[in-house]
Amino acid sequence: KSNSFCTLLDRLMEFPKKHVLRVAVTGAAGQIGYALLPSIARGLMFGPEQKVELALLEVEPAQNALRGVAMELEDCAFPTLANVVCTADPRVAFANADVAVMCGAFPRKDGMERKDLLQMNAKIFSEQGKIIGEVASKHCRVVVVGNPANTNALLLALAADGSIDPRQVTALTRLDHNRAIALAGRKAGAPVKNAIIWGNHSGTQVPDVNSAVVADGAALREVAKADDYFDGEFIPEVQQRGAAIIKARGLSSAASAAKAIVDHVHDWILGTPEGTFVSMAVWSNGNPYGVPENLIYSFPVTCKDGQWTIVPGLTISEPIAKRMQATTAELEEERAQATA
């Protein structure tokens, strides 16, 4: 590609400064939506001065519940909430959207094969990706939350067919990242940053603390002196944390998922702090870690001005590399099954 074409592409991808940002949220009357929307409306996602319009999408049977959510948002009297739109029509929800948060997905039901779930969601996310490509703002940033999130995001990006750049479509692994730094921080007795989630948002995800540090910059492993824990039970503890919450609560994570979505979009648009990287599942093409192309894969990234960059040159231990191969294989299998 010529330099002038790349410059044009980057200019189209720039995230603009606007008086009111339009944020589309799908599955908006669900558990995560209910926890998420007040945080967006009160300015936690884009800052306390940025006004937002919420475009809330739900299936027809949930429209009454959605109207109740909208009434509550109005009753909060948030100064940064400019307007709320409720709709069952994706073209209305995604029209001119600056950000799209895709919480809605088809849930797995008893007796349903994983392949069936993948194909059902492939249909939904391909349709929505096509519509986003047609009616959303060309700079629209998309975060997919509904599972299987990585593969749903890939299918959405492909269906947009170049109308929005695949680098503008991401999947949420920030909840896994936040779980990892929280558990590591408990072990170290200090706040932790720069943990990594590699790969898929699933049981094969790879939590990696080999580059993690505590607040003063000292290596986490040196401070915590708990290598047996970090090389052993820590990994399944992060991988299975969502299941543990369902077992304890009878419901899946909502408040922590909402916080992670806010963190993900906030850092993507407003930037990561100097010296800090976070985990985002992003377009794998051109990555420096040998992950195959055409996947949405979780990497350590830094963000600035609405653009993410994969952090290069991090050391990957042999056990982590083996786990990365397994999560890559799962993502390739999901892609094959979803598109079969």
TrEMBL record:
The active site is at residue 201. GO terms for molecular function: L-malate dehydrogenase (NAD+) activity. Substrate binds at residues 108, 114, 147, 179. Coiled coil: none annotated. The keyword Cytoplasm does not apply. It is an enzyme of class 1 (oxidoreductase). NAD(+) binds at residues 27-33, 121, 145-147. GO terms for biological process: malate metabolic process. Keywords: NAD, Oxidoreductase. Gene3D superfamilies: Lactate dehydrogenase/glycoside hydrolase, family 4, C-terminal (3.90.110.10), NAD(P)-binding Rossmann-like Domain (3.40.50.720). Residues 173-338 form the Lactate/malate dehydrogenase C-terminal domain. PANTHER family: MALATE DEHYDROGENASE. The keyword NAD applies. Transmembrane segments: none annotated. It comes from Neobodo designis. Belongs to the LDH/MDH superfamily. MDH type 2 family. It comes from the Eukaryota. Its EC number is 1.1.1.37. This is malate dehydrogenase. Pfam families: Ldh_1_C, Ldh_1_N. Residues 22-158 form the Lactate/malate dehydrogenase N-terminal domain. Signal peptide: none annotated.
